[in-house]
What does this fold into?
Amino acid sequence: MAGEAFLGAAFGVLLDRLASEEFINFFRGRKHDESLLKKLKVTLLELNKGLNDAEERQITDQAVKAWLDELKDAVYQAEDLVDEIATEALRSKVEAEYPRGKQSLQDSVISTFTSFFDRGVNSKLEKMIGMLDHFVKAKDVLGLREVATRKWSQTRLPTTSLVDESCVYGRENDKEEIMKLLLSDGENMGRCSGIGINELGEFDYLRGTISISGLQNVKSGNDALEAKMSEKKYLEKLALKWDSITEDSQNARDVLEKLEPHTNLKHLEIKNYGGTRFPTWLGDQSFCNMVSLRLENCKNCFSLPPLGQLPSLKELTIARMSNITNVGHEFYGESGSLSKPFQSLETLRFEKMSGWVDWCILDAGEFSRLQKLEVEECPELVTSLPRTTFIRELLLKECRGVQLEWRSVSSVEKLEISSFASLKEFPSELATLTNLKELSVEKCPRLYVPEMSNCNMFLESLELVMCESLISLPLGLFPKLRDLVIGECTNFETLLIPEGIELQNMTFLKTLTIEGCKKLKALPEQMHTLLPSLQSLTLIDCPEIESFPEGGLPSKLDNLYIRNCKKLVVVPRGGALALHGSTLTYLYFQDLPNLKSLNKRGLQLLGSLKRIHISECPQLQSLPEEGLPTSLIAFSFDNCPLLKPRCRREEGEDWHKIAHIPFIVIDHELISD
It folds into this structure.
């Protein structure tokens, strides 16, 4: 979803910039049509409403995916246009406020943007609005609706079209930063011919976010000192990066020592640092405003800085520090301090620490507010976890030596574990974890779940992936389960659903996904009554499934997604879909080499069906004689060579069966809209 995360961030940036006072004032000053800005903003807001829904559906809906891909290109163009306008506005203001001696490159930039405005910004805005309007119309046809906003972790800010993103991040607040870019050649800071790191010292009022790359090119600590980073009190986020691990570890340490920022700094990232020790300022209590810190790939360091006494630190990530073998007392800071270590820390991550063996836990009240702990790819670590009553999320991945004490994680709501070879079955303590709502178990090859296993009365989401010993799963063990995923469990054969008096316990399950289960031959019989609340059913790479249950599908089923089930010959037969699937709105069939026909009677009776997508079904010969439901708004297929000529516009034998559908895509080409 990284591309779609970009779209969400890009929309936010564009809207912020269009609403900025400087942007609007400059637009008025150049006597451009201000109403175009309002139209562009309204159009972006309308598109943004359907973005989250599209992100969820693009995995299973080819038409939605195509819409997102094309929208991404359009957003890039919109960014470019807004960037040029905003940069010209800032350049004009900066030219007056910060006159400089070097003019050649600046003159070139001025010439470029002046010619842009001479060509007419109004016409370009009108063209952009017209293009985005096309996506608004397609959004409505696809039925994309406004849903709750996903909480993306926006660790990467969108970049402008002006320079390489490794040089500078940040949009709205760093005016001087954009000025600096206009005077540079867009290369990294350490080797840039337009501006050297020492020239940063001239800009005392840098604010917002700055990233300095290419620090291996800084020749000495004295050069770094001239940047006067400690005087930039308005800077909030700073990234310091070496493009590679330098062989001169002493110089790297001198450079980082002299790049000490102002104590107002809130966010700091250090990457590829080649020194053997961190500078004395890192971890000092005077950095009382620092809320997040990331140390990555500092391979020469043998110990961590004393970070425990940073009073406001909420998020800490330590990654790819291969020479760290012990996280000891020095990590927590001065032992004589009155404050408890990491008193404000809420999120702690250790990632890809290949040499880490021991973690010293003080049991002295440290991590008292820790809510999220992630330990990932630390194969040599042998330790217990810190005890805290506030932790809500725990991720342990490829940490085979970590001792998971189930009773010590009683507050956990979300638990993800991976590569625990010793885990054979769920422990008895699982039943006592009353706060646990989400459980994900991956790469536990010995795990099996007997019918008389320990149950959890509160679990709502369960994901079992690559657990080769799992043969069956008794759903009665998890009566409140809403979402179930079984993936790549190659020996999994059956889903056991309770019957009779226990049936009432399974009324919560809404989504069921089964993927890569090579031995699964059938879904449970009478699942339309056993799983009455099921809304989404996904079957992927289950080659032994030949047909659906005779009783049909649950009455509340909304989405049916089937891919790479090679023995499946026909979709639910008879009136199975129509009888029990009256709420079905979406059908997706892909890579079904033996599928020859669709349901001849059931499809026509599905009055709620909105979208059908069919992909890679080479033997599918035709559409049902009765045609497709009049409720359809989107129909798409690709790589169905026998079906394609029959659906040729106005000429194909099956065209009359789909002509009423507003949105038709064949082999990724829009046929009707």
Remarks:
- The CA atoms of residues 120 and 309 lie 56 Å apart.
- The first helix runs from residue 2 to 19.
- The longest strand covers residues 235-241.
- The two ends are 27 Å apart (CA to CA).
